[in-house]
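Teaching note: in complex prediction, the entire set of molecules is handled at once rather than each chain in isolation. The prompt given to students was simply: 'Predict the structure of this complex.' The entities are:
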Amino acid sequence: MPGNDTHLIYRPGWVNNGPSRCCYIINHNLIIIGMNNRRSFLKSGAVLGGALLFSPANSSARSLERSNLNNNNNNEKKTRVLGKGSQALKVSTLGLGCMGMSYHRSFVPDKKAMIALLRKAPDLGVTYFDTAEAYGPLVNEELVGEAVAPFRKDIIIATKFGFKNGRPAAGLDSRPERIRAVVEHSLRSLKTDYIDLLYQHRVDPKVPVEDVAGTVKDLIREGKVKHFGMSEAGVDNIRKAHAVQPLTALQSEYSLMTREPEKDVIKVCEELGIGFVPYSPLSRGMISGYLNERSKYNPDNDNRPSLPRYQAENVIANWPLIDVLKAFGDQRGLTVAQVALAWLLAQKPFIVPIPGTTKLAHLQENMWVVNYAFAPGELNTLTTKLDQVKIVGERYTGQSAEQTKK
Ligand SMILES: NC(=O)c1ccc[n+]([C@@H]2O[C@H](COP(=O)([O-])OP(=O)(O)OC[C@H]3O[C@@H](n4cnc5c(N)ncnc54)[C@H](OP(=O)(O)O)[C@@H]3O)[C@@H](O)[C@H]2O)c1
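The expected output is the structure of the full assembly:
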């Protein structure tokens, strides 16, 4: 049995059944092993032993691990499709947000450790990697390019253009010549000759969105780009762009603290057959319970100190959301982050969240969520409780807020 990702997990039913059942995930296949007697316990040990033979340290396992990327096709839970028709793109049910490995999340971990994490990600089911020119700027694309080079053709790389000199603080720039220059640079940084999914990071009011879509259309014709996406675009611009070059994905902030896209954007995506990719699905780590009103950030490499929701009084005011998620998760062996991601996935089949992490344990925890299915009625009960929590504090202020007013 090929596999290298083996860990003990809890499932709904654990509480009721107590320790009489033991569950393992081996390459995302849930294996429930009876623990009622010694024979089944020994049998489970044999299964695990076999799985562990294929540890990442075992180089001969590499090709098997890589083949798991293709085996994903056999399991609908592991993949979703963004976009439709000729613009459809199959991706892992959860993507990996790579931004925090170099930018905006305080501590920048050792590059070798991040390359190792990125190379482990496909073994855990990740085939969609999200980056942007602006992350660093530039260095995040270089990191992702170096890390995924050995299996680049097996995965999906999404990147973004749209800021002057790649710096959000410098303002917007989606002029066609700038888009082309960014794409050439991204291709070099990513060590590839095509970008699977190219997003406009923010709508540029100075450049007609039709010109942006037309430029991406030309890049698709030239083979440098495969699919088109927009980030934080409003419904009018989505429709205008889609009429020129069909969009594969719309990427916007969407989480249990930011539910604005439910009003119109997700509905338009459904109508037009565009995938929806929630960024900051854990509200920059807040919807995990790990951050609190005493959390400290590195102001030189973190946008959270400038955002209202991370101010102590708002963290405290919004804590009832964590309480609801924790109460739900505690009864089912799920963490706060897992409940939040499972809730997002349950909203629509074309939703593909991209949680960011710098830790293997969090990546495993997040990716496990694709196995979770809400029992009948469970989702409605949870949503009703979540709806009662009033979130306080804007998600952005100043120029960042202006740039999302598409
Ligand atoms: N289009 C846009 O304008 C835009 C804007 C922002 C972000 N993005 C994209 O979205 C991705 C994710 O966004 P984000 O990083 O802002 O927010 P996020 O995914 O909501 O949160 C990331 C934070 O959560 C923590 N975390 C992740 N999994 C966890 C778990 N299971 N338990 C506890 N903590 C956990 C991470 O810390 P650890 O490292 O300690 O795990 C990290 O600090 C980015 O990487 C980027 O690709 C796009």
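Point out the following to students. The pocket of NAP is lined by residues 97-100, 105, 130, 201, 231-232, 251, 279-285, 288, 290, 337, 354-359, 362, 365-366 (CB under 6 Å). The two ends are 50 Å apart (CA to CA).
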